[in-house]
Amino acid sequence: YVREPMESRRYVDATDHAFASAVRRNRSRAMLTAMAITLVFGAIVFVLWLGAHAVLEGRMSGGLLTQFMLYAALVGGTTGVIAEVLGDVQRAAGAAERLIELLDARPGIDAGNKQVTRLEAPPLVAVDALSPPRGGASVQFESVNFNYPSRPDELALNDLNFSVEPGATVALVGPSGAGKTTVFQLLLRFYDPAGGMIKLNSEPLADYDLASLRESVGLVSQDSIVFSANAMENIRYGRLNATDEEVRIAAQAAQADAFIQKLPDGYETYLGERGVRLSGGQRQRISIARALLKNPPLLLLDEATSALDAESERAVQLALERAMAGRTTLVIAHRLATIINADRILVLENGRLVETGTHEHLLRSSGLYARLAAMQFEVGAAVPNDPATSTPRIA
After folding, report:
1. How far apart are CA 312 and CA 284, in angstroms?
2. Buried b (16+ CB within 10 A) or exposed e, 248-267
3. SS3 sequence of 264-298
4. Where is pLDDT greater, at 125 or 159?
5. Which of 198, 120, 128 is closest to 157 using CA atoms?
6. pLDDT tens digits for range 214-236
7. For a Cys staple, 265 with which of 269, 272, 294, 336, CB 3.0–4.6 Å?
8. Predicted TM-score (pTM) above 0.90
9. How far apart are the C-alpha atoms of 371 and 349, rounded to whole Å?
10. How far is CA 241 from the centre of its chain?
11. CA distance 10 to 313
12. Is the predicted pLDDT of residue 10 greater than 50, yes or no?
C-alpha cells in the first residue's frame, strides 16, 4: 500500500515519546538524588559545625566528635540507599501483583481423569503398513448449546444434535458463521458447552483427562503449522518417540517424502520460521504427515486444501485419503466437490443442524445444500465423477 512514509512517522513518533519519557524519569531521579545528597551532607556539615564549637569549648572530645561523624555518615548513606531500594520495591510490587493474579487464575475447563481407550496401531514398517486405529472413535452431540464469552447473547450452536459412528467420514457444510469451527473447538475442549452434552465413545467428554483426549484427536487445519526446525523434527512432533524410519514412512504416506528428499539436506533441512522455505502444499503435507504419525482415532480436517493450487491439492487429497482410512473423520468443507463421497453431510445454519444426508440425497432435497451446490456448479449439471477430472474424495 506504499505506506512506508506513514509507518516511518509512526515509528519516529513512538520512539520520540519513549525517549522523552525516559528523559523525564531520569531528570526526576537526578533531582531527587541531588536533593537527598544535599540534605544529608548539609545536615552532616551543620552537625560538624556544632561539634567543632563544642570541642573548642571543651564540652566534647575530638574522638567523640569523630565517632559521631562516622556514625552520622553511615546513617546518611544508608538512608539514601533505602530511598533507592524503596523505588525498586515499588516497581517489583506492581509486577508481583500481576504475577499473583496469573498464579491464582484457575482454568474454566474442569478436566476429568478417564483415559481415552484406543487401540494402538502396529509399528510402521512400510507405507502399506501404516495402520490406523481399527474402527476409530464415536462422537455424539446431544442438544448442545454454546455461546462465546465475548458474545454472551448470541448462540454459536443452538440445540445441535448429531452422532458419528466409528470409522465414518462426516462433512460439516454451511455458510460462514454457521458454527462449523465451533464444533471442532468443543471437541478439543477449548470451551465447554453452555447446555447439552458431548460424548466420545459414549462417555461424556468432560470425564476425560485433557491430555488423553487431545492425544486421541488429530487436527489438520487450513493454516498449516510448521515449526522453525528441520523436516524430521516437524513431523516427529506428532509422536515424539517415533523412530526416523517411522517418520519417513509417515512422510511417504502424506506424499511428502519426494519433495523432502529434494531439499538441500533432506530430512535435516531447516524449514525456516513458519516454513517459509516451503510452498503452501508442502507445508500442508508436513501437517498431514504429523497427523499420520500421531495415528489418532479421531481426525479433524478444517478446510485442509482450500488455499492450494490444483496440483498441490491433488497431492494433499491423496494424503488425506490415506489419513482418513480406518478412523473417524470430521471435515469442514466449503468446496462441495471435495465431499461428495462423504458417508454423511451435516448442513449447519446459524448454529442449527438444518439438513443431513448424502450428497445425492441433499441435492434432491432442494434445501440449503442444494442452493450452495448451485452456486458452485452449473445449474442442472451433475458433479463430475470422472477420476481424471474430479477432485478426489475429501479436502
Report:
1. 9
2. bbbbbbbbbbebbeebeeeb
3. CCHHHCECCHHHCCCCHHHHHHHHHHHHHHHCCCE
4. 159
5. 198
6. 888 888 887 888 888 888 999 99
7. 269
8. no
9. 13
10. 23
11. 41
12. yes
Tell me the Cα Rg of the chain: 34
What whole-number distance in Å separates Cα of residue 83 and Cα of residue 265? 59
In 203-262, which ranges are E strands? 203-204, 217-220
Distant-in-sequence, close-in-space partners of 59: CB < 8 Å, separation ≥ 6: none
- Model confidence at 390, pLDDT cuts 50, 70, 90, reads very low
E strands present in the chain: 139-146, 157-164, 169-173, 195-200, 203-204, 217-220, 298-302, 328-332, 344-349, 352-357
Region 181-200: mean pLDDT is: 90
| pLDDT (0 to 100) of residue 379 | 44
Q: How confident is the model at residue 378 (pLDDT cuts 50, 70, 90)?
A: low
Grid coordinates given for 185: 473447538
pLDDT given for residue 20 in this prediction:
96
C-alpha cell at 210: 485433557
Alpha-carbon span 316 to 306, nearest angstrom:
11
- pLDDT class of 8 with cuts at 50, 70, 90: very high
Q: Which residues contact 283 (CB under 8 A, 6 or more apart)?
A: 224, 226, 275
* 8-state DSSP, 329: E
Sign (positive or negative) of CA dihedral 246, 247, 251, 257: negative
What is the grid cell recorded at 307? 488455499
What does the pLDDT look like over 124-143, one tens digit per residue?
434 343 444 456 788 899 99
**Residues in contact with 79: Cβ distance below 8 Å, sequence separation at least 6, in sequence order:** 36, 40
What are phi and psi for residue 347, nearest 5 degrees?
-100, 120
Grid cell 475447563 in the structure block, residue: 109
**Active-site residue numbers?**
303
**Mean pLDDT lowest for which of 6-20, 303-317, 376-390?**
376-390
Average pLDDT over residues 140-154: 89
Q: In percent, how much of the chain has pLDDT > 70?
A: 85
**CA–CA separation, 333 and 241 (whole Å):** 33
C-alpha cell at 153: 447473547
Q: Residue 46 is placed in which grid cell?
A: 551543620
DSSP string, 99-130: HHHHHH---S-----BPPP-PPPPPP-SGGG-
